[in-house]
Amino acid sequence: MIRLRGVSYAYPDTANYVLADLDLSVGQGEVVGVVGASGAGKTTLAKIIAGFIPSIEGGVLSGDIDVNGVAISSLTLSEAVAQVGLVIQNPFNQISGAKFTVLEEIAFGLENTGVPREEIAERVQAVAKQLRVDHLLDRSPYALSGGQMQLVAIASMVVMRTPVLVMDEPTSQLDPGGSRMVFDIISQLTDLGTTVLIFEHKIELLREHADRVAVLADGRITAEGAPRAILSDPRLEKWAIGTTRYTRAGLAARDTGLAPVTGELPVSMPDAVEFFGPSGKH
Amino acid sequence: MTTTFYVDRPSPIHRLNPVTKLVAMLSIIVIVFAIQLWWVAALVVLVVVVPAAVISGTGGRLLSLALKLLLPILIVLVLIQGLFFPEGTTVLAQWGPARVTVEGLLFALGIGSRITALVLCSLLLLITTNPASLMTSLSKNGMSPKMSYVISSTLQIIPAFQTRAESILLAQQARGLKLRGNPIRRIRALLPLISPLILGMFTDVEERSTAMEARGFSSTATHTSLMIVPDSVVQRVARWVFVALAVASVVLSFSGLLS
């Protein structure tokens, strides 16, 4: 469970607050997606929840940040990372750079935290199969494509089995199939009780898989609610996040009088089928 | 992309504990440099390196790498010491100031045989030892995980640098950078590469350290290892024997008994 209340943050040597009086909650076993324009503070927020800000990067942080009922500021970094797993945006930097095979790379975190060898082998194989990178286990992490590297980076974090997982654009280098697979795994993790906060640009996937969606703009959460209601909100254009083609088509249909002005606009293909199709209302 | 010299083969040399090989290599280097007799180095190559290379099935790779490394060194050594050795008195041939002397050739042979033994032993270790198992066994023998990380990541950093440099070069060529022409022009064309390469690596280091911490790098738990590195009593004894031989060679050398 994640609970943020009145969180404000300014990087060192600057008076500008990246985040200002931000509130956000994610329940246990819930998937909450956060959308925001580039530079909105998504990565900063991810690092705050994972305990890296201010302990590593410094700056001025205020407000309450609780993870599973414990203030993250009261934990050492080692304790914090045992609670919150962080998948960073660039998979090239998620890999350790010190391991010679994908197998060893995925095992790295488990070795660091003293997990017994037999259990490491079991968990690495399981997660590699889950993310369909088991055929890459003998390859060098540097010999992978961007998409493969991203899957290995995600595997290396999922294998840690932290109760909370924060993912910063985890599908940025993945094809549609790979992206869907990542969200399927997120669903499996939440079924087991993992709390997931995901920063993502792929709105249609969030519509399909997130329990709730929040909008990060102007340093705070400006909208929050059910995925379809939030992701079809025309204000997303104003916040430089953008809407899907289905939402824009729905809006155009409304403007031309082809659809009534009330009701939720579509975000994804199934929404559009319902919105425009013969079984739909319009 | 190949990041190391390692060649995987199912040989008994490959199966030896990496620390045994490391200790053997370091001891042999100490011995051949302590005992200043060229035939000791030659004997080491014939009795240790050649059989080990044949048994491990890596003779070809060892030979090709050794030639690339050693040929330039040995040629320069023979040219300088063989032709211009100042203390040479037994002249075999002379062209102006250049004199081929027996003493010069013997000096070149002494240095050359030791450098050859050093390079061959080091290469054989690198070719027959999986770097990951070397790091694991060093950690098990007391090296800190952070030191192990520094060594491993240094081995990996070159291909990472290459990949980044290639993509920066491609991006700059796409914007009109010309890489053809004389060598000076080529070097000047490479200057714009340096700043994005170095700055990019600094940014990477910062982000990677975050990712490493997220995976418990600073955890105070006793680190475990997925990899099993075989060891035995015989090998442990052998390691001490190698150390003892190295120490003995140094003692004998200082005592003047071998000169």
Instruction: Record the strand order, biggest sheet of chain A.
Output: 6-7-8-3-9-10
Number of strands of chain A: 10
Kindly provide the radius of gyration of chain A, computed on alpha-carbon positions and rounded to a whole number of angstroms.
Answer: 20 Å
Global mean pLDDT of chain B: 85
SSE topology sketch:
The complex is a heterodimer of chains A (282) and B (259).
Chain A: E1 2-10, E2 17-26, E3 31-36, H1 42-49, E4 60-67, E5 70-71, H2 77-83, E6 84-87, H3 91-94, H4 102-112, H5 117-130, H6 146-158, E7 164-168, H7 176-191, E8 195-199, H8 203-209, E9 212-217, E10 220-225, H9 227-231, H10 235-238, H11 245-255, H12 269-276
Parallel strand pairs in A: 3-8, 3-9, 6-7, 7-8
Antiparallel strand pairs in A: 1-2, 1-4, 4-5, 9-10
Helix pairs in contact in A: 4-5, 4-6
Chain B: H1 12-15, H2 18-34, H3 38-56, H4 59-84, E1 91-95, E2 98-101, H5 102-128, H6 131-140, H7 145-174, H8 183-214, H9 233-255
Antiparallel strand pairs in B: 1-2
Structure description:
The complex is a heterodimer of chains A (282) and B (259). Chain A starts with a strand and ends in a 6-residue tail after the last helix. In chain A, 38% of the residues lie in helices and 22% in strands. The model of chain A has no long low-confidence stretch (mean pLDDT 91). By secondary structure, chain A is an alpha/beta fold. In chain A, helix 4 (102-112) packs across helix 5 and helix 4 (102-112) runs parallel beside helix 6 (146-158). Chain A has one domain (2-243): Rossmann fold, CATH 3.40.50. In chain A, strand 4 (60-67) and strand 5 (70-71) form a beta hairpin. Chain A contains twelve helices and ten strands. Chain B has 259 residues and is mainly alpha-helical. Chain B folds into two domains: 6-137 and 230-259, no CATH class; 156-216, no CATH class. Chain B has nine helices and two strands; from the N terminus they run ααααββααααα. Chain B has helices spanning 12-15, 18-34, 38-56, 59-84, 102-128, 131-140, 145-174, 183-214, 233-255; strands at residues 91-95, 98-101. In chain B, a hairpin with a 2-residue loop joins strand 1 and strand 2. The mean pLDDT of chain B is 85. Chains A and B meet through helix 2, helix 3, helix 4, helix 5 and helix 6 of A and helix 6, helix 7 and helix 8 of B.
